[in-house]
Structures are given as structure tokens and as C-alpha cells.
Amino acid sequence: MTTSNAPITYASAGVDTEAGDKAVELMKDAVRATHGPQVLGGVGGFAGLYDATALTRYRKPLLASSTDGVGTKVALAQALDIHDTIGFDLVGMVVDDIVVVGAEPLFMTDYIACGSVVPERIADIVRGIAAACSVAGTALVGGETAEHPGLLDPDEYDVAGAATGVVEADALLGPDRVQAGDVLLAMGASGLHSNGYSLVRRVISVAGWELDRDVPELGRTLGAELLEPTRVYAADCLALARADDVGVHAFTHVTGGGLAANLARVLPAGLVADVDRSSWVVPPVFDMVRRLGSVPWTDLQNTLNLGVGMVAVLPADGVDAARRLCTERGVPAWELGVVRGAEDVDLTAGGDVEIVSGTKGVHGGGVRLIGDYRTS
């Protein structure tokens, strides 16, 4: 056995606990800003504490939970050295899955794995998470930063998070409420959000485009467009769900798999949603990806949101009120299509019609995509 003359310490192995402590000091004010009186114990405890006394007002509270990450979009944040927006992508991916069932997201935790703790960078990431939690009305009650030298390069990191919410049992939204005659109300995306970046990054790489390239059709640099934060819909969806004159039956969060695949998950067997591809103009970034990589429309629509980040399924007589509420809240919204009984729909695909059903292990209704996408 050979031994080293120099003592081996945790720091010499690549882990800097003092840097971790400094990162906490830099981020703690932003985290505390998300705390209401329900959060106990402050920042730095072993566990985040949340006073659940408010749940006693529920007749039958159902807890909802979700966990997710950001995916390969973090590679762009690292390449651009901009880290204070990726938190919106993380929070959006997590809390907007919870709100789909009508649940109010109560609290969230985050996890950051990195090659080396750079306090300012970690603090920027967490400040972004905290800012997004504030938009969602969610408390950030804790988190963890783990330094993994040798596993990740010094400038590499990944982020993940989990959240818990609550909904009254008889207010639960989903397929059981959806009926023939319901209308699909699209809620506009802010951009690519956080899905399909493996495709997007591959297209950009093959084309040889740099992130600082000015792209006239986008009105800014390629990097700025690709790093555009995910729109966080939680508070907007809850406002719609709680509006008596809207009467939402279901939401679908348009993430991995695209619009049709995610919409099919909230439709019961025996119903088909007609989606009119011409009902909106696909934002320029999606068409840029299509043209630059010669990506087929089918592949594009099955990977990216194409400008629709969330869909509300609601009775026809609630559409006007829902659109007004979305407008008041600064969320673009439009009628996307309608839900029909399968017996009233010609399910023979052909021409510009495509049928999508049986996705994510859910075998319920189907989605019929009709018409052509508009890019101008």
C-alpha cells in the first residue's frame, strides 16, 4: 500500500463546504420572501416545515404532488452564463402539473447537483426559483445543493424540484368532468418552455449557429430566445378554476409529447377533441427550428408546444368569461377546438387529419388534429 505524504481533505477532494454556506447566505432573503405565516423554521433546517392547520377547513382534502426537472435547457443557461431564469422553468414544470387537477400548490423544494459550488451562481439559480414560486403563490420551504466533483464538470449543474398541493375532493378536475360540447381554450406559451431541447440543440448544432447570433425573425439573439423562461400558469389556472362563471372541467399542461398527446390524457373514453391547427399562429421560434433542421411537422408537434402551454377544457357558456379573465391576467387565450362524442366524429385519418390517443399509459379519449398550422 502506498500513501500520500500530503493529507487529503474534503476540500482537496473537490468539495468546498464554505462555498455552500456562502451560497445559502446569498439566497436566503429570496427564499424567505416566498414564506407566509404557514412556513416555520426559516432557512437552513434539516426539513422544511409547513403549518397544515389550514387543511382543517377542507371537508375531504386531497394532496397532490409532482416532481420534475428542466432537462437539457440547463446546458444553454451554462453556455450563456445566465442562471437567474432557469428557476422559472423548474417551477413551471412542477407546479403547473399540480394545478391541472385543480390543486393549489402549497410548498416546493429544490435540488441542485453541481460539479463545483460557485456561490453566486447557485444563489442566482435559487433566486430564480424563489421568484417563480412567488408568481405561483407557492412557498419554497427547503432545498439541497450537492457538489459532485469528478461526476460533473466544475461549471455543470442540474436542477430538480418537487411540490405538494391540495384540492377539495369534490373540486377535483379531470376526465370525469369533461363532456361532449366542452370547448378547448388555449393559453399561450412564452416560448419553447422546457421541453424538446434535445431536438432544438441538435438542430442548432448541425446548422452551426452560435447562441449570440442575431435572428431578425425573433427580434433578438438566438440565445435570448432559447433561454426565454417558461410561463408559470398556476395562479392563472386557479383563478379560472375558482371563477363561478367559467366552470373549468379540466386542464392539460402541454409539456413533453406536445399538445395532442397531453390533451388526450384528460379526455375520457368515448370523447374526441377536435383541435384546429389554424386557430393560432405558430410563434417564429418553432418554425425556425422546423426550417433550420428540416424537421417534419409531425415530429415538431409531437415534441414541442408550438405556442400552446396550457389548455382549459370548459363548458361553452364559460368561454367568454374565461377569455376575459385570461386577458386581465396578461395571458393570451383563444378557442382551440371542441370536444365531441366519438360517435359523432369520423375517425378515419387522412389528408390533413391526424388522430392521437393512448398516451403516457392513459387509455381514454382521443384528439383529432385538423387543418394546417399557420406561421404568419
TrEMBL record:
GO process terms (BP): 'de novo' IMP biosynthetic process; adenine biosynthetic process
Boundaries of every PurM-like C-terminal domain copy: 179-347
GO cellular component, one term: cytosol
Reactions listed under catalytic activity: 2-formamido-N(1)-(5-O-phospho-beta-D-ribosyl)acetamidine + ATP = 5-amino-1-(5-phospho-beta-D-ribosyl)imidazole + ADP + phosphate + H(+)
Domain PurM-like N-terminal per the UniProt entry, residue ranges: 59-167
Pathway: Purine metabolism; IMP biosynthesis via de novo pathway; 5-amino-1-(5-phospho-D-ribosyl)imidazole from N(2)-formyl-N(1)-(5-phospho-D-ribosyl)glycinamide: step 2/2
EC identifiers of the protein: 6.3.3.1
Pfam families on file: AIRS, AIRS_C
Amino-acid biosynthesis in keyword set: no
Cited InterPro entries: PurM-like_C_dom (IPR010918), PurM-like_C_sf (IPR036676), PurM-like_N (IPR016188), PurM-like_N_sf (IPR036921), PurM_cligase (IPR004733)
Keywords assigned by UniProt, alphabetized: ATP-binding, Cytoplasm, Ligase, Nucleotide-binding, Purine biosynthesis
GO molecular function terms attached to this record: ATP binding; phosphoribosylamine-glycine ligase activity; phosphoribosylformylglycinamidine cyclo-ligase activity
Coiled coil: none
Superkingdom per UniProt: Bacteria
Subcellular location: Cytoplasm
Family the UniProt entry places it in: Belongs to the AIR synthase family.
Protein name: Phosphoribosylformylglycinamidine cyclo-ligase
Originating species: Ruania alba
Taxonomic classification: Bacteria, Bacillati, Actinomycetota, Actinomycetes, Micrococcales
Gene designation per UniProt: purM
